[in-house]
Amino acid sequence: MRAVVLDEFGAPEMLRLRDVPTPVPAPGEVVVRVAAVEVSRTRDLGTRSGKHPFSQAVRLPHVLGGHCSGTVVGAGDGVPRDLVGRRVAVMGHHTCGHCASCRSGADEACEGLRLLGIHRWGSYAQYTSMPQECVHPVPDDLDLYDAAAMAATGPVGLTQLRRARLQAGDSIVLPGATGALARTIVALTRRLDVRVIGLSRSVTGRAENLVVLDAGREDLADAILAAAGGPPAAAIDNVCAPDTFERYFPVLAGGARIVVSGAIGHPALPVLNVPARELYSRNLSLLGVRSHSAAVATEFWQLVRDGFRLDAETVRAHPLSDAATVHTKIADGVLTGHNVLVPPTATDRQEVPE
Ligand SMILES: [Zn+2]
């Protein structure tokens, strides 16, 4: 099969399309013909550079790529045969099931968490394989490009919203409003009657329950209060740019929750200056969300089967062969939001695993 292979850590040009062996289904696993894989800034660009903590778990040569979508074409021993032929979303996390976190139901903190595209070859390829429990059938009318984008951001976005403990009528600060995860969060908040104050360095505007403010404006604190109609109840900050944090932090409501699942606000990973006294005097919570539990993933895909969709035209598709260019454009901020890579169609029947 064709796959984008990383032989050495470094610049985007290290990503090269070439032939590698097609995966065969191991016991308990499925092989999926990949329709689309979302490019993740944190996971993919960070890992490729060799400078992200994820890189230490990678053995070269390597195939990047996590959450994706496609069609099940092979099933190992113990996997129901009726999964073969199903259109699915593939969650790129697999938990061990027996550590203390897994046993207590907090499997997102699994000590043995295995990530597709980090601990095993990923989905920048025509085929990928994962344990059966990581695939979720998707509705026939759901575009598989959207399914890949949802897999990458839906369950983690839902987890962040849960941690933010929002109630109807609340408002929330959302730095990095043009990012992929942020767009999914905005779509999810429409079901909750929550007003979103997005912050961005590149765009401003307004749509339905969303107002996007220029993150760099001098009067940002006042602008947030005006747009929110009062102190916001929470922030979901997956950028953690220190200067932006220092502007919105003072205007959060007493008891507010600040939820963090990413940290792309500085090339060397940002460090936030958190006034410790205010954490207790204002009863604030600073919460890290690493990923999502298997239960939340199941819940999210049920929402999708019940009709949840991303906004139209939020997903941009690129040929897999353009992986290096897409990495460069995301790093430069030229591409934002959901960007998926689409592998070449496998027409050679020899390539389809039995
Ligand atoms: Zn575990």
UniProtKB/TrEMBL annotation:
<protein>
    <recommendedName>
        <fullName>alcohol dehydrogenase</fullName>
        <ecNumber>1.1.1.1</ecNumber>
    </recommendedName>
</protein>
<dbReference type="InterPro" id="IPR036291">
    <property type="entry name" value="NAD(P)-bd_dom_sf"/>
</dbReference>
<dbReference type="InterPro" id="IPR020843">
    <property type="entry name" value="ER"/>
</dbReference>
<dbReference type="GO" id="GO:0046872">
    <property type="term" value="F:metal ion binding"/>
</dbReference>
<keyword id="KW-0862">Zinc</keyword>
<keyword id="KW-0479">Metal-binding</keyword>
<dbReference type="Pfam" id="PF08240">
    <property type="entry name" value="ADH_N"/>
</dbReference>
<dbReference type="GO" id="GO:0005737">
    <property type="term" value="C:cytoplasm"/>
</dbReference>
<feature type="domain" description="Enoyl reductase (ER)">
    <location>
        <begin position="10"/>
        <end position="341"/>
    </location>
</feature>
<dbReference type="InterPro" id="IPR013154">
    <property type="entry name" value="ADH-like_N"/>
</dbReference>
<comment type="similarity">
    <text>Belongs to the zinc-containing alcohol dehydrogenase family.</text>
</comment>
<keyword id="KW-0560">Oxidoreductase</keyword>
<dbReference type="GO" id="GO:0004022">
    <property type="term" value="F:alcohol dehydrogenase (NAD+) activity"/>
</dbReference>
<dbReference type="InterPro" id="IPR011032">
    <property type="entry name" value="GroES-like_sf"/>
</dbReference>
